[in-house]
Amino acid sequence: MRMKKIIWGFFCALFLTVHLTARAEESNPAEELSLYATSAVLMDADSGRILYGKNADTPMAMASTTKIMTCIVILENASLDDMLTVSAYAAGMPKVKLYIQKGEQYTVRDLLHSLMLESHNDSAVALAEHVGRGFLEPELAEKPVEEYTEEESKRAVAAFARLMNEKAVELGCKNSWFITPNGLDATQEFTLKDGTVIRKEHCTTAAELARIMAYCIGESPQKETFLEITRTANYSFSSDGRSFSCVNHNAFLNMMDGALSGKTGFTNKAGYCYVGSLRRDEKTFVVALLACGWPNNKSYKWSDTKELMQYGIDNYSYRSFLEEGIAFDKKILKPIAVENGQTHILGETAYTDIEISDRRRRENGSMDFVDDGANEKNLEGLLLREDEEIKVEYHLQESLTAPVKAGAEVGEITYSVGDTVYRRESIVTVSDVREIDFAWCIRQILTRFWL
Question: In degrees, to the nearest 5, what angle opens at C-alpha 71 toward C-alphas 172 and 56?
Answer without folding.
Answer: 40
